[in-house]
Amino acid sequence: MLETVHVDLPGRAYDVHIGPGLLQEAGTRIAPLGGRKKVCVVTDRNVAALHLETLRNGLSAADIDMAVLELPPGEATKSWPYLTQAVEWLLDQKVERGDIVIAFGGGVIGDLVGFAAAILRRGVRFVQIPTSLLAQVDSSVGGKTGINAPQGKNLIGAFHQPSLVLADTAVLGTMNARDFLAGYGEVVKYGLLGAADFFDWLEVQGPALAAGDMTARVEAVRRSVQMKADIVIRDETEQGDRALLNLGHTFGHALEAATGYSDRLLHGEGVSIGCALAFELSARIGLCAQEDPSRVRAHLKAMGMKTDLSDIEGELPDAQGLIDLMGQDKKVVKGQLNFILAHSIGAAFVTSDVPLHAVSETLSDALAARR
Ligand code: GLY
Question: Cα–Cα distance between 265 and 15 in angstroms, integer?
């Protein structure tokens, strides 16, 4: 049940292996990269408690030793203090240019450790071993690394491609349902942005996938990663097409900011609601049929995902307040808000040509539905 997606970037090509049991094979997968028989693993305490021994055994099967730094779980770790800690720890471990650093965890660990690897000795190699669905289908692939700033998410960072990604889908079995479904928001995003047939497949297979069907999980991760790889190969540094991957993120980031990047709304939940709003907006300005947002929302709801603003507890700013928060987003270009809208399910495009009153009306209607 092992699948491989090749990310064919010139001079920086790498494989993403996907399937159950890859932690046990980590040593034999990493050994061909060469370097010393010792790797530095940065992880978080939750992942360490669940999976570190399996990784240790997998590495030692190929005579690879590991040193481990455990950081606290949670978004607050994606910040200067923990970047400093990770970089200084890696220097203390005497990591050399040819060595391998391993990011073992979800999106927070992947982004932080990838950035540490990017700046350490002007760039050392790193391997992503993503342990959440979100990290397996999105953040571990494509080389975006970084930390958050008080001014906004992911504002400090670098493009630094991993040398290998091992997406062990058996590990997803230890995720709680809320985190899993938040990651599924990113899976749905791929169908919505560029593959109507994948969205059709998810409508049918989504419930089995959520219930633990391994074949469906591997296929969903493979398809998502293949779509991401194709886009990243075309546009590594987001001059154009890569922005499609931000479908749902302009709304989603504003909602995350409005909820203080807290447990009130996980990133993938913001993406899920954001995708629904992007389709509402697309229909409102006549870009897609009214049935499309209804179908998007029906699938998200059927999966038990956060879909509407009424699924967010507590106060939210008014429409103008949310639009102001969108203005903080790093996708703002020359002061213009960029949106990813759609002509239909599977046909998204990037535009800055969106009437603000339509955005405002979309948000006002969504807010009114909360009352
Ligand atoms: N997560 C969006 C990207 O990698 O471009």
Answer: 32
pLDDT of residue 35: 84
**24 SS3 class:** coil
Q: What's CA 179's distance to the chain center, in Å?
A: 12
**Are 273 and 252 spatial neighbours (Cβ–Cβ below 8 Å)?**
yes
Distance 142 CA to ligand 1 centre (A): 7
d(CA 64, CA 29): 11
Which range is least confidently modeled, 157-171, 228-242, 330-344?
A: 330-344
Q: What amino acid positions are annotated as catalytic residues?
A: 122, 144, 186, 228, 238, 242, 246, 249, 253, 267
Mean pLDDT of 96-121: 96
CATH number of the domain at 177-368, please? Answer: 1.20.1090.10
What is the DSSP pairing of strand 347-351 with strand 38-44? Answer: unpaired
Atom number of ligand 1 nearest to Cα 246: 2
Question: To the nearest whole number, what is the mean pLDDT of the chain?
Answer: 95
Predicted confidence (pLDDT) at residue 104 exceeds the cutoff of 80: yes
Count Cβ atoms below 10 Å from residue 302 Cβ, excluding itself: 12
State which CATH number among 2.30.40.10, 3.40.50.1820, 3.40.50.1970, 3.30.470.20 fits the domain covering 3-174.
3.40.50.1970
Q: Whose CA is nearest to atom 3 of ligand 1?
A: 245
Domain boundaries, the chain: 3-174, 177-368
Could you read off the pLDDT of 188-227 as tens digits, one per residue? 999 999 999 999 999 999 999 999 999 999 999 999 999 9
pTM over 0.85: yes
